[in-house]
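Input chain follows. Return structure tokens only.
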Amino acid sequence: MTDLQQTTPEEAAVKAGVLIESLPWLQRFRDQIVVIKYGGNAMVSEELQDAFAQDIAYLRFVGVKPVVVHGGGPQISQMLDRLSIPSEFKGGYRVTSTEAISVVRMVLTGQINPQLVARINAFGPFATGLSGEDAGLFGGRRRGVIVDGAEHDLGYVGDVVEVDPQPVLDQLAAGRIPVVSSIAPDLDNPGHSLNVNADAAAAALAIALQATKLVVLTDVPGLYADWPNRDSLVSHLTATQLREMVPTLESGMIPKMQACLDAVDGGVDTAAIIDGRQPHSVLVEIFTEHGIGTEVVAG
């Protein structure tokens, strides 16, 4: 006897209603590419890791083409501490020394990436790991940061300035779920790697793939127009409205909202930041009318 048969008629009707609510979104997103930036609390909680893996597998089973991009700030910090390599931040960016970039690369591509691939593959043999260094996927250039009017060197930290989406498209064509770590080869210094912001990398990849949607997981419910007033949560806004707000945002929120803005400006239909602390927030965002978090559209 199935779960549906064991429930009351009223409970079955509620379940059917939930499934039917997803129908327009299944029609919209079937065969479409959706880029999801994975990070924050969703990455460190075992329960949330499993829920995220289920969401990604579900998308694949219903015909969506998910692409996951991940960072790994907390795990990188833990490993640097364990190895007694000092962590320093300037303007919200991690200063990445020669020692530190080796650790960043090891944690992102050697630890987090295969762990996430394994979790998704527990639900079906679809996920495959990629690095931004694989097959020319990303190309990066070093960047500094302006703090109090002065520019500071960040070491091996860069921006994604080139994207060749073909390695990801090849995996999607084979029916796989690409899981991409946010590290890039230094175009100006062959043989060296750069630590790149995963939000920005996800936006750049979404644009190159002509994705329908970018979803950024974070540790807050969304964008607040008047933080810390929790009644000021913005559920929907245009790129023009967001462009005006970006300079006023808290430093931690700026890279995420800038990524959404860049994606929409680059042709992605919609971009959203959602609360990764909520189990199955990816499915709620994609398959329900009101979604969750803050959605950005062109205009």
